[in-house]
Amino acid sequence: MRLLARAQELWHKGYQQWQPPGSRRGKWLAFIRKLELERSLAVLGSEVSLDKISSVLEIGSGRGDQAAVLAKTFSHVIASDVDVSSLQRPYVTPVVACSAEALCFPDDSFDLILSSNVIEHIPDKVLALREMKRTLRPGGIMVHVVPTLFCQLFTLLVAKYAFQGMMLVSFFRELAKCRRSREQRSSPAGTHVSCGGESKTPVSASRGYVIRVLRLLLPLGVHGTAPNTFQEILEYRHCSWQSLLEESGLVVLTTRNMLLYSMYMILPFRFLAVRMWLARLGITTTRAYVVRIAQERNRGSRQL
Ligand SMILES: C[S@@+](CC[C@H](N)C(=O)[O-])C[C@H]1O[C@@H](n2cnc3c(N)ncnc32)[C@H](O)[C@@H]1O
Fold it and tell me: What is the DSSP letter of 85?
């Protein structure tokens, strides 16, 4: 019953609640983000000399963990987010509150613009990418880590239903407990008995749980800004990201697969070798895109 209540909370208040920073799941998420950043910098290093990059803008910094790592590699890093309330204090880098769709920086400000798991949350992606182009110096470079098709497929088809399976098992266990408790107490029909800490008749309690479990099972969650899951799956395909970037006047230099994991962060740190092997085969939850501006000629390009 506690697990079911936890699932409801998770469903309604967002899955971040499932992975508070100090918990094992929180550590797993931090591990994934660190790995994604390391891999992004490695693939960036294969395209440009990192020594030549000094000014860096991170879009959608979230807690600011990645900006802190970037600040160890580059001399001038700015963390930005539309909502800076979750940025950890004390700030390691300058922090700017602004939307990616209206960046509050002058033209040609940065050598590198990086975002991790952000673009899928931005309502007007083309406008945001245009803003990033404007603030990128001639010859500058961008790295965007975005979810793939497998992010949604794996989360929905495997993790979501495995997770909800756990909820169902817990529900039937609790139901059996309620029945036993009713028999033992032999309370008169219709009176309230204690069942998993709640005071309801077993029948009405179990009806409520069935409805809750069904509610959990039916809707397919949407992660970003797409109107529904199916649209989201289409938008997360490699060809869709590639067209979005190209339509925004960017050219993809290279990509790098990251790791296979689910949004529910279940089985943290398990099967790491298998996850990495699958990611190498293309079955990955996120992928990094290293991009440049396609038309650099008019901007007096100086390649890094
Ligand atoms: C899933 S979190 C990722 C946080 C962090 N980059 C990470 O990898 O852990 C998405 C972040 O994007 C930010 N975000 C959403 N829409 C944005 C926008 N239009 N402009 C800037 N940041 C935005 C959110 O506030 C949130 O911090």
Answer: G
Residues 178 and 246 grouped into a single domain: no
144 CA distance to ligand 1 centroid (A)?
12
Q: Which of 169, 198, 217 is the endpoint of a domain?
A: 217
Alpha carbon distance 18, 28 (integer Å): 12
Q: Range of 196's domain?
A: 152-217
Question: Which pLDDT score is estimated for 78?
Answer: 97
Query: Is the same domain home to 45 and 130?
Result: yes
Distance CA 104, CA 85 (A): 18
Confidence of residue 3 (pLDDT cuts 50, 70, 90): low
Among residues 178, 166, 163, 151, which one has the least CA distance to residue 260? Answer: 151
Say which residue, 144 or 225, is predicted with more confidence. 144
> In the structure encoding, which two tokens stand for residue 193, read together?
């008995």
Q: Looking at ligand 1, which atom is closest to the CA of residue 101?
A: 19
Cβ atoms of 155 and 263 closer than 8 Å: yes
Confidence grade of residue 105 (pLDDT, cut at 50, 70, 90):
very high
Q: 145 CA to middle of ligand 1, Å?
A: 12
89: Cα separation from own chain's centroid? 21
In a domain, 173, yes or no: yes
- Predicted model pTM: 0.78
**What are the Cα distances from residue 225, in Å, to 228, 233, 286?**
9, 12, 17
Contact 129, 73 (CB under 8 A): no
Residue with CA closest to ligand 1 atom 13: 60
35 within a domain of the structure (yes/no):
yes
Query: Which of 115, 133, 138 is closest to 224 using CA atoms?
Result: 115
